[in-house]
Design goal:
There is one protein chain. With about 425 residues, the protein is of the alpha+beta class. The chain has 3 domains: about 160 residues, Globin-like (Orthogonal Bundle), CATH 1.10.490; about 140 residues, Alpha-Beta Plaits, CATH 3.30.70; about 110 residues, no CATH class. It contains 16 helices and 7 strands. The chain has a 5-stranded mixed beta sheet with strand order 4-5-3-6-7, covered by helices on one side. Helix 1 runs antiparallel to helix 2.
Length: about 425
C-alpha cells in the first residue's frame, strides 16, 4: 500500500504523505486556536468577546474551514461542500452587517499564513522533503481562492435578496419620527404605510449609540429602525419594551456605549432621543459610569439638574456669592458642610459623622454659614435652590463653583478644631 494520497477532486491533483495528513489532523486544535487569535489581532473589527455573536461566528468559521481542508487533503469527508456552505454563510453575514468582503478576505489571508507556517514547521520536524510539499501549498492557495469565491456568492445573494430601497426608506422613516419640529402625522403615516411596511406602534423606545460603536445588526429584530450613519447614531424599537427586546439589544450592543431611552408615545420619541443623547454625553464626560444600554429612567434627576450646566454654574455663583472672598480651601469645607445640612437636615453629630470631623467643628462651620448667608437659610425656597444647586455641582464633580478667593491664610477651622479638644 502506498503511503501517499493520489487524489484530490477539483482543479488540483496533489500527493500528500498519509502520515503528514495524520499529523495535520493532530495539529488541528492548536491551529484553530492560533488562527482565531491571529485574526482577532490583525482584523480589529473581529476582535470581540468569545461568547459574543461575532466571537461565536468567527470560531465556528475557523473550525469548519480548517477541518474541511484537512479532510480534503486526507481524502475524508465532503471537504469542499462543507467549506463552500460555511463561506457562503460568512459572506451572507458580512452583507447583513453592511460591509464589503475586505475584512473577510483579510481574515482568510491571515488563516493561510498561519496554516502555511505551521505546516512547514511540521514538515521540517518530521523530515518531509520540501519537494513533497509543493502540491500541498498549491492546494492551500486554491482552497483559499475558492473560499473567497464562495463567500462572494453568499454576499451577492444576500444583497440581491435584501431590499436596499426598503432599508433606505426605513431610515428615512426613523429620521422623520425623530424630527424637530415634528413632522405631520399624515407624512409619517404615508411613509410607514406605503413605503416601509412598518405598522405604527402606540409607543416606542429609542436607543442612542456612541458614534463608531460596534453594533451587530444581524442580532436586531426585523422591525427595529436603524440609523447608524447619522452624527448621533440611534435605533428605535417599536411597541412595549419587553425582556425579549432587552435581550435582543444586549446581543446587538454588548460592546457599544449606548443609552436606553424612555418608552414613550410615538409622537414624543424625539424628546426621548434628546434626553438619551444628553445622558450619553454625560457618560462619556465621566459624570455617570459608561456602559452599554445605560437606562435613562435611572438618571432622570441627573438629566434635569444638568440640563443646562452653565445655568447650574451661575446659580452656584449667585447663591454662594457671600463665600466668594474666602480662601478656596475654607470655602470648600463650608460648602461641604452646607451640602450635608441642606440635603439631610441632620444634627451636628450626624453631619460630623458623614464628613468625618468633630461635631464642634461642624457647629463652628454652621455658625460661620449663618454669618455669611444670614436669614436666607431659613427660607424654604432658598434651601430648595441651594439643594438643587449643590447637587448639580456634585454631579459635575465641581469641588468649587466659585472663582479662586484671596491667597490662602490660616484655616479658621484649625483653631476651632484644637479648642474642641480633638
Amino acid at each position: 500500500m502506498t503511503d501517499t494520497l493520489d487524489h484530490l477532486s477539483g482543479p488540483l491533483d496533489i500527493r500528500v504523505p498519509r502520515h503528514l495528513a495524520r499529523l495535520m489532523r493532530a495539529e488541528l486544535p492548536a491551529a484553530i486556536d492560533e488562527v482565531d487569535a491571529e485574526i482577532r489581532r490583525t482584523v480589529p473589527e473581529y476582535d470581540r468577546p468569545a461568547d459574543s455573536a461575532y466571537g461565536r461566528i468567527l470560531r465556528v468559521g475557523v473550525e469548519q474551514l480548517l477541518t474541511a481542508f484537512v479532510d480534503l487533503v486526507a481524502g475524508d469527508g465532503p471537504g469542499r461542500a462543507e467549506r463552500d456552505e460555511t463561506c457562503r454563510a460568512l459572506g451572507h453575514f458580512e452583507a447583513i452587517e453592511g460591509r464589503t468582503l475586505d475584512l473577510l478576505q483579510a481574515a482568510y489571508r491571515t488563516a493561510f499564513h498561519v496554516c502555511y507556517r505551521r505546516t512547514m514547521s511540521i514538515a521540517e520536524r518530521e523530515g518531509v522533503p520540501a519537494g513533497r510539499l509543493t502540491g500541498l501549498v498549491e492546494a492551500m492557495i486554491v482552497y483559499m481562492d475558492e473560499a473567497v469565491a464562495a463567500a462572494r456568492t453568499g454576499h451577492r445573494k444576500a444583497l440581491e435578496h435584501a431590499d436596499m430601497h426598503h432599508r433606505e426608506v426605513r431610515q428615512e422613516l426613523l429620521r422623520t419620527l425623530l424630527r424637530q419640529p415634528p413632522a405631520s402625522a399624515e407624512a409619517v403615516e404615508e411613509l410607514a404605510r406605503n413605503a416601509a411596511w412598518w405598522p405604527l406602534p402606540e409607543v416606542a423606545t429609542v436607543v442612542a449609540v456612541a458614534p463608531g460603536a460596534p453594533c451587530t445588526r444581524s442580532a436586531l429584530d426585523g422591525d427595529v429602525l436603524i440609523d447608524l450613519d447619522d452624527a448621533e447614531p440611534r435605533l428605535l424599537v417599536p411597541g412595549p419594551f419587553t425582556p425579549a427586546r432587552a435581550a435582543m439589544l444586549r446581543a446587538a450592543l454588548e460592546e457599544a456605549d449606548s443609552v436606553l431611552g424612555l418608552t414613550l408615545p410615538l409622537s414624543r420619541v424625539a424628546h426621548s432621543l434628546r434626553w438619551a443623547v444628553r445622558l450619553l454625553t454625560l457618560a462619556r464626560e465621566g459624570v455617570i459610569p459608561r456602559g452599554s444600554l445605560i437606562p435613562c429612567d435611572e438618571h432622570l434627576t441627573t438629566l434635569w439638574l444638568l440640563s443646562d450646566p452653565v445655568l447650574a454654574e451661575e446659580m452656584a455663583r449667585r447663591h454662594l456669592a457671600p463665600l466668594a472672598d474666602l480662601t478656596t480651601g475654607h470655602r470648600r469645607k463650608l460648602t461641604a458642610t452646607l451640602t450635608e445640612w441642606v440635603t439631610t437636615r441632620g444634627t451636628a453629630v450626624d453631619i460630623a459623622e458623614s464628613l468625618r470631623v468633630h461635631p464642634q467643628t461642624v457647629r463652628y462651620r454652621l455658625r460661620q454659614l449663618d454669618h455669611y448667608l444670614g436669614d436666607s437659610l431659613g427660607d424654604p425656597k432658598t434651601r430648595f435652590a441651594l439643594d438643587v444647586t449643590l447637587r448639580a455641582a456634585s454631579l459635575m464633580h465641581e469641588d468649587d463653583a466659585l472663582p479662586p478667593g484671596p491667597a490662602d491664610r490660616a484655616d479658621p477651622d484649625a483653631g476651632s478644631y484644637k479648642r474642641s479638644g480633638k
